[in-house]
Amino acid sequence: MRKIIALLTVTFVLGTTALTAQSFSDDSLSSEKNWEIHAGYGYISGNTFAMLIGTALGIALTAPIADKVNYKFEDYGIFNAGANYYFNDHLYAGLNGTFQYMKIFGNSNILFSTIMAELGVQYGWSRFKFYHAVDAGIGVAVSDKTSPYFACNLTWLGIKFRPTEHLWIYAESNIGQKGFVQAGIRVKL
């Protein structure tokens, strides 16, 4: 519960800081291009990190019989897709979905899927921007059985570049479900 309260507090602080810094002129709020869709690929999510730690502990604790256990681990990365709505040039909210497929111990398959709400702030220039975001939602791990879990992500630094009027190319570093490193495209509608 403390983690959820801390996450909501950080989200509130980021949002109020962005709103306070924003000059509420009519030009900043009358943009016709408020919606954006995005897709990206990331690697080393919180799930991957937990599996790597678990596998390392398994190898360390079962060293005498480790040659009899297949500790093979394959991670195919994280696919992310979603949409954002920009309230002004600095504050946005959105919805993200992530999909991740792993194989562990040679024959166990796990599919992680999440849906998360996102609140973010951005700043910078017209063609180059920095951003930060907080995501929270629900995830489902599907293997032999289905297990729901609390999914969260912190984008501690994102950078995006706009080569055309509607297209952004982005790269970000995260802690959580989207992968430690992620890159992709964003399209303004």
Description:
The radius of gyration is 19 Å and the shape is elongated. The longest helix has 20 residues, at 2-21. The protein contains 3 helices and 8 strands. Helix content is 21%, strand content 54%. By secondary structure, the chain is α+β, with helices and mostly antiparallel strands. The two termini are 37 Å apart. The chain has helices at 2-21, 26-29, 46-61, and strands spanning 35-43, 73-86, 91-104, 108-124, 128-142, 146-161, 167-176, 181-188.
Query: Count of DSSP E strands?
Result: 8
H and E string: HHEHEEEEEEE
- Mean pLDDT across all residues, rounded? 84
Number of helices: 3
- Which spans of ≥5 residues are poorly predicted at pLDDT below 50? 18-31
Residues in helix, %: 10-25%
Largest sheet: 8 strands, antiparallel, barrel
Terminus-to-terminus distance:
37 Å
Strand order of the largest sheet: 1-2-3-4-5-6-7-8
Radius of gyration: 19 Å
Shape: elongated
Q: Indicate the structural class.
A: alpha+beta
Task: Report strand %.
Answer: over 45%
Give me a quick take on this structure:
The chain has 189 residues and is an alpha+beta fold. The chain has three helices and eight strands, in the order ααβαβββββββ.
Provide tags for this entry.
189 residues; alpha+beta; eight-stranded antiparallel beta barrel; 3 helices; elongated
